[in-house]
Amino acid sequence: MRQIKRIFVHCTAGSQRQTIDDLKAEFHRKGWSNPGYHYVIDTNGGVHQLLAIEHVSNGVQGYNSTAINVAYIGGIDADGKPIDNRTPAQKDALVLLLHKLKQKFPTAQIMGHRDIWGTDKSNWRKMCPCFNAIQEYKDIA
C-alpha cells in the first residue's frame, strides 16, 4: 500500500453537465494512462471510483505518489469563471467520502489543490476546488 500524506480535493473545472465519460475522454486526450482523480462526485452525489487507491492518479503534479485525489463535477460558471457550485448532494457525498478516506489514512492532510501550489513565477494561482477545503474539512478525523 502506498504511503498517503495528502487527500486533495478538486473540482473538474467543467460544466455541471459534464459526465464521467466526458471526464475520462479528457484524460485520454491529454495522453494520461491514469485519470486525474481516484474518485469523482457527480451532481446527484454519486461517487464514482475511477482508479483504485493503490495506483497513482494525475491530480497534483509532484505530489501524486503520496496522494489520493477526489473531485466534484463543476467548479466554473457559465462564463468559465471559478465558482463553488457544489450541489448539496455533492457536499454531503464529499464529507462521507473524506471521512472514509481519513479512517483508512488517519495521518493524511485534507486540502484543496490550490493549497499546495500557491503562486508561481508568473503569479499564476490555482483556484481549484474553488473553496477553502482545509477550513471546511478541518474537523474530519
Note down, in words, how this protein is organized.
The chain has 141 residues and is α/β, with parallel strands linked by helices. Helix content is 25%, strand content 16%. It is built from four helices and five strands, in the order βαβββαβαα. Strands 3-2-4-1-5 form a five-stranded mixed β-sheet. The longest helix has 17 residues. It is globular, with a radius of gyration of 14 Å. This is N-acetylmuramoyl-L-alanine amidase. GO terms for molecular function: N-acetylmuramoyl-L-alanine amidase activity. One of its GO terms (biological process) is peptidoglycan catabolic process.
Tag the structure with descriptive keywords.
alpha/beta; five-stranded mixed beta sheet; 25% helix; 5 strands; 141 residues
Strand/helix succession: EHEEEHEHH
Structural class category: alpha/beta
Mean pLDDT, rounded to whole units?
Answer: 92
Q: How much of the sequence is in beta strands?
A: 15-25%
What strand order characterises the main sheet? 3-2-4-1-5
Main sheet: strands, sense, barrel: 5 strands, mixed
Q: How much helicity do the residues have?
A: 10-25%
Number of helices: 4
Using only C-alpha atoms, the radius of gyration works out to 14 Å
Low-pLDDT parts are: none
Instruction: Compute the number of strand runs.
Output: 5
Assembly category: single chain
End-to-end CA span? 21 Å
Assign an overall shape.
Answer: globular
Protein name: N-acetylmuramoyl-L-alanine amidase
Domain N-acetylmuramoyl-L-alanine amidase: 2-129
GO molecular function: N-acetylmuramoyl-L-alanine amidase activity
Organism: Segatella copri
